Amino acid sequence: MVTPFGQSGFKPTDHGMVEMPQPDPDLPFPALFARHYQPRLEKRAAGFETLFAALALMPDPVLILETGTLRLAANWEGDGQSSYMFDVFIQAAQARQRGGGFFSIDLNLDSVAAARRVCSGATNLICNDSVNALHSLARLLDRRKASLLYLDSFDLDVADPLPSATHHLMELAAASPLLATGSLVAIDDYCIDGTSGGKGLLVDLYMNSINAVVIHSGYQKIWRLP
Fold first, then answer.
1. CATH superfamily for domain 26-224
2. Model confidence over 100-117: pLDDT tens digits?
3. Is the pTM of this model over 0.90?
4. Domain coordinates of the chain in residue numbers?
5. 62 conformational bin, left if phi > 0, alpha if psi -120 to 50, beta if neither
């Protein structure tokens, strides 16, 4: 019987589900990103290029926290497939003995199920309210600090951005015990059709107030904490 698990019981990534070839194990992640992922990302291409370059310089072990998981496999232009890329990145880090972990949180069971079909056993998926889950993780991951907090959970209504913006600010507050000087915080859907704010409307105000360093501002916005 064919199962989705390898001989060791570890579930491998299903690259075919996101219309990607099996990666060459000798190809470093930056080359893999440039060759296969970046051309599909359109408006998020520059943001993810900056993000992964910054992640590569973070101290070991790398810890990535994501709110809003993969919901539609292979929807590169629409959603960005961040969960898949983080899954591949963490496996590459583990293969190089860098260690690390990746947690992705979503309230929608269908999205979590879709991510489970695509991502490997290296990805920890949580089906829960993201604010509650981040608060719990802050206690469970005692003294561990996140390399990256990637915020992309509450869908944005561009005509009324405050509900989404408020939720993402609450996520940042819940995750604050897991963040430290040098941690990266990124948010999706920040600048849409030339209008800045979006999901990051309130997070941006907070980051400005603490003099966080902006390392990218476009469709996504990325800060390094002071």
1. Vaccinia Virus protein VP39 (3.40.50.150)
2. 899 999 999 999 999 999
3. yes
4. 26-224
5. beta
